[in-house]
Design goal:
The structure holds 2 protein chains of 2 kinds.
Chain A (H helix, E strand, L loop, with lengths): L2 E4 L2 E3 L4 E2 L15 E4 H6 L1 H7 L2 E5 L17 E6 L6 H12 L5 E6 L3 H9 L4 E4 L5 H4 L19 H16 L3
Parallel strand pairs in A: 3-4, 4-5, 5-6, 6-7, 7-8
Antiparallel strand pairs in A: 1-2, 1-8
Chain B lengths: L5 H22 L5 H9 L3 E3 L4 E5 L5 E3 H14 L3 E4 L5 E3 L7 H10 L16 E2 L14 H11 L14 E4 L13 E7 L5 E7 L11 E8 L3 H15 L10 H8 L1 H15 L8 H9 L14 H9 L1 H10 E3 L5 E6 L10 E3 H14 L3 E4 L5 E7 L3 H8 L16 E2 L14 H10 L3 H7 L4 E4 L13 E8 L2 E8 L11 E2 L4 E2 L3 H15 L6 H8 L2 H11 L1
Parallel strand pairs in B: 6-7, 7-8, 16-17, 17-18
Antiparallel strand pairs in B: 1-2, 2-5, 3-14, 4-5, 4-13, 8-9, 9-10, 11-12, 12-15, 14-15, 18-19, 19-20, 19-21
Helix pairs in contact in B: 1-2, 1-4, 3-12, 5-9, 6-8, 7-8, 10-11, 14-16, 16-18
Classes of the chains: A alpha/beta, B alpha+beta.
């Protein structure tokens, strides 16, 4: 079982992930689940009624499909079949910044410590670390960089903050 | 030039620490080769034929003398005392040890340098005009804009895992010297009718296996929007670029498959959601960046003072060098000097540590402590007083850096090829040398005039053979090294892709082939027409007939 990191700490994972070919018959009663986008699109009403259902997106899926559902989904997961396939980074930013998704955004698949910093900058706050990788040690990677130049989900570009930071620094230096 | 502040320093140092830890985990077996490879590539480290190859970023081809001395020191301490300046204005080392790379990165960080994203499927080094800031035909100095884009690209969290590598060039002159039409994104700084600065945006150009000329998708983008617009292009590419086939993964294929018009609409739609957002650049930031590139204290001098003119008249060799290697400067009495790294017998673009140190000393004395790198693999002193040229030339000659061949046949652009590169199908350096030796008569070389000869050891086109007036591509035929020749390519405002003249040749035939191409040109040229102009006028047939009539 993958270990879950949520909000930069190891966390319990209540959700069961249903992979590609899942049908409604695979959905166990009373267990929180994350279903493929195709199943969600097909059985949306039934799954909404069921509650505690999240959706996962494959790299080729359109995150815009979930635009109308962002307020009712507690978990959206984005799959990385290989960590070198970067489409999910853009999907995450679109979900967060364009569609206003505020729930848990989880990276699943080939997720390792060397991807965590950038993933977090794009809006992911949960990470399913596969077996064989040290999830506890991976948490240190969130501190790989203290800041960055670009506008991301969690910060404005440095050039917008620089003047304020410089003014504050100067003010402190000149404190009596 | 740009100087790091505490923020820039911290990021680069954090990158060094990150890669040091990644290297450590790889060496103890915690990271597999497959996991480590993309990480090391994003720090410029390839595993090559003999040893790792390590590529150091030289943002928009600009170095301080302190940086150049550090590069010399690094090549001595960690390599074999030389480096190779590449067509992306970077420096490559051919013999470092993997274990040493974190230490090399730390050395680089101490002089405000890094190797971030010099390889990998990410945004690579931003290239620019090697005459930026001093060219007479410059409309807008591209350097502050390059620095803005360098910062945007560096460690961009959304675009570290693109379908394929991504190259951006920026120019602000009326004559293009950056091959701006042959980049994933080409940006031309322009002024509109109101005098506002903006960009003409070109996408989908590139060389490699499927060379294409880029398409203008926007004639004028206000400069404040540049990062929003780049985000829009990169996001469109990141989401929709092909990932099923490495050879169809560059943005040019997406632009072609969607058509440039539809691709432009997709980008504009994405941009409309980002326009005016957090990444909009305020004027104050442009002003701040521009302040790093203010003009040095030039002399009050005029062009062609008597002493300079008499030196030209008295010394034919000096006159030849000035004709070929010195370009007009926007300030009277000053000159732009190109130091040729194309001396026969030395691999094109290579410089030794001793040469780097000597160049740094000369740049401190004559050129305000800055050295440029051109994508033609030569070094540039941008701000030399005309009255110092003779002294500078006299100092460059014993260093082997005054070969008067800039823009001539022996100024060959060439990748490291099969001698070093594990991707190469064929060697390139010995072919370049054989051609240089064939054309060793300086008077004849000058008579042939301007000609770009570009050579790549494989389809990846690091030697930019598609835009050579003569382009040579190393190919593999049943395990043997062969060379395919194209003519009529060009960079610049009228960029064109060369046309292949026919079946490929054995290595030993290449000097003869080039000689026959040149003979055809000499016989058929009109007036002071360049080689490429003659090819355009009469087509490739006469050249083809001549070459194949006797070669086969």
């Amino acid at each position: 079982m993958p270990r879950l990191i949520r909000n930069r700490a190891l966390a319990e994972d209540r959700y069961t992930l249903l992979r590609d070919a899942a049908t409604l018959a695979d959905v166990p009663d009373g267990v929180p689940i994350i279903v493929p986008l195709a199943l969600w699109s097909e059985r949306r009403v039934a799954l909404i009624a069921r509650g505690e259902t999240g959706v996962w997106l494959a790299p080729a899926d359109d995150p815009g499909t979930l635009a109308a559902d962002v307020a009712r989904l507690a978990v959206i997961a984005i799959d990385f079949p290989q960590f070198t396939d970067g489409r999910g980074y853009s999907h995450a930013r679109l979900l967060r910044e364009r569609f206003g998704y505020a729930g848990e955004l989880r990276a699943i698949g080939d997720v390792g410590r060397d991807q965590l910093y950038y993933l977090a900058q794009c809006g992911f706050d949960a990470f399913a670390i596969p077996d064989g990788r040290d999830a506890a040690a991976a948490i240190a990677a969130f501190a790989d960089f203290s800041d960055g130049y670009q506008a991301t989900f969690s910060r404005t570009p440095w050039f917008r903050r620089r003047q304020v930071a410089t003014a504050v620094a100067n003010a402190c230096v000149s404190c009596p | 030039m740009y100087r790091y502040d505490a923020f820039d320093h911290r990021l680069v140092q954090e990158r060094v620490a990150q890669f040091r830890d990644q290297t450590r985990r790889f060496l103890i077996g915690e990271l597999s080769e497959d996991e480590f490879r993309p990480l090391r590539l994003q720090n410029g480290l390839y595993i090559q034929r003999h040893a790792p190859m390590f590529r150091i970023s030289i943002p928009y081809g600009l170095l301080s003398t302190a940086q150049l001395r550090k590069l010399a020191e690094i090549t001595r301490r960690y390599d074999r005392g030389y480096g190779h300046f590449s067509t992306r204005q970077n420096l490559q080392l051919n013999w470092p040890r993997l274990e040493d790379v974190p230490d090399i990165l730390a050395e680089l960080a101490s002089v405000e340098m890094h190797a971030i994203q010099t390889s990998g499927n990410d945004v690579r080094n931003i290239t620019s005009d090697h005459f930026a800031g001093v060219a007479r035909d410059e409309v807008v100095d591209p350097r502050p804009y390059c620095e803005l884009i360098r910062q945007w690209a560096a460690l961009h969290p959304e675009f570290a895992w693109l379908p394929r590598k991504f190259k951006i060039a920026v120019t602000g002159a009326t004559s293009d010297r950056t091959a701006v039409l042959l980049h994933d994104i080409g940006l031309v700084l322009v002024k509109n009718g109101a005098g506002d600065i903006g960009f003409r945006v070109i996408v989908g150009g590139g060389m490699g296996r499927t060379p294409m000329i880029g398409h203008v998708i926007r004639d004028f983008l206000p400069r404040a929007e540049i990062l929003n617009y780049l985000d829009a292009i990169l996001r469109t590419y990141n989401r929709f670029g092909r990932r099923d086939n490495k050879w169809k993964a560059r943005i040019k294929i997406l632009v072609k498959e969607r058509t440039p018009a539809r691709f432009a609409r997709d980008v504009e739609e994405e941009w409309s959601r980002l326009e005016g957002g957090a990444a909009t650049v305020p004027d104050a930031e442009f002003d701040r960046l521009a302040s790093y590139f203010s003009a040095p204290p030039y002399d009050n001098a005029v062009d062609d003072e008597p002493a300079f003119k008499s030196a030209l008249a008295d010394n034919r060799a000096f006159d030849k060098w000035v004709t070929r290697n010195v370009h007009p400067h926007r300030i009277g009495g000053h000159a732009i000097v190109t130091l040729s790294l194309k001396r026969t017998g030395v691999p094109p673009g290579d410089a030794t540590a001793d040469q780097m140190d000597a160049i740094a000393d000369l740049a401190d004395r004559y050129a305000f402590g800055e050295v440029g790198v051109s994508h033609e693999q030569n070094l540039i002193l941008r701000d030399v007083r005309q009255r110092d040229l003779f002294e500078l030339w006299s100092a460059l000659r014993p260093l082997g850096l005054a070969t008067p061949n800039i823009g001539l046949l022996t100024d060959i652009v060439c990748c490291p090829g099969g001698d070093f590169c594990s991707l190469a199908n064929a060697k390139s350096i010995p072919i370049a040398e054989a051609i240089q030796r064939r054309f060793d008569d300086l008077d004849y070389l000058h008579d042939i005039g301007e000609i770009d000869l570009n050579m790549s050891g494989c389809m990846n086109a690091c030697g930019q053979h598609h835009i050579g007036h003569i382009g040579i591509l190393g190919v593999d035929k049943n395990g043997a090294e062969w060379y395919q020749v194209s003519i009529g390519g060009s960079q610049g405002n009228d960029a064109a892709l060369g046309k292949v003249i026919g079946p490929s040749f054995a290595a030993a035939d290449m000097p003869d082939v080039v000689e026959r191409l040149i003979d055809t040109y000499i016989e058929r040229r009109h007036g002071d027409e360049r080689f490429v102009d003659t090819v355009r006028r009469i087509g490739i047939e006469p050249f083809k007939e001549r070459v194949y009539a006797t070669a086969h």
